[in-house]
Every structure is written in C-alpha cells, then in structure tokens.
Specification:
This protein has 3 helices and 3 strands, in the order E-H-E-E-H-H. With about 100 residues, the protein is an alpha+beta fold.
C-alpha cells in the first residue's frame, strides 16, 4: 500500500493469538479484546536488517487492572521471549522477567 505513495521500505503486520488464551482473559473483562490478538509487525531497517515489533503483552493486558488478566499477559511475555530466543535474536530486557 505504501509503495503506491512511493515508499520503498517493506513492512508486514501480523495478528498473533489463540482463542483459548483470549477466553482466559475475556471471562474477566471483554474489553481485553482490544489487544487480542496481539498485533505484530516485521519491517526492514535502513541498514538492511529486519525489525520485529510488538506491544509488550503484560503492558497491554495489565492496563485492565485485573490480576488474572495481567498474569496471562506475563505468560505471553515469556512466550514471545522464548520465540525470539529460538530465532536467535536478542530478547529485550524486561520481556522475560
């Protein structure tokens, strides 16, 4: 889409989620669906590398103020950290704490 405006960089957005995990939060507060599934983005960098971007799940779901929902967000943090480690890319500080 942005190529039509003359931009040459690449960017793809993905939705990552699991309906069973979402239901574990939905039962406490349906408004968490604002953040489920998680939006992720992969784009190129000017140096030729790639960038993976995601809003930290514990921050997004922690904003609900419900401890059970926040705990699911922390679990998702750990899952994203494990995925990044598996892909052999740096895991940001605070993601796997």
């Amino acid at each position: 889409m942005m190529n039509l405006a003359g931009d040459t960089r690449h960017c793809v957005e993905y939705l990552m989620g699991n309906h069973t995990t979402a239901e574990r939060m939905f039962r406490y507060d349906p408004t968490v669906m604002l953040y489920a599934p998680l939006r992720t983005l992969i784009s190129d960098r000017p140096d030729g590398g790639a960038r993976f971007v995601i809003e930290q799940p514990s921050h997004a779901f922690g904003s609900s103020g419900v401890d059970a929902i926040h705990e699911v967000g922390r679990e998702l943090d750990r899952e994203v950290a494990a995925l990044l480690a598996y892909l052999e890319v740096p895991v940001p500080a605070g993601l796997s704490d």
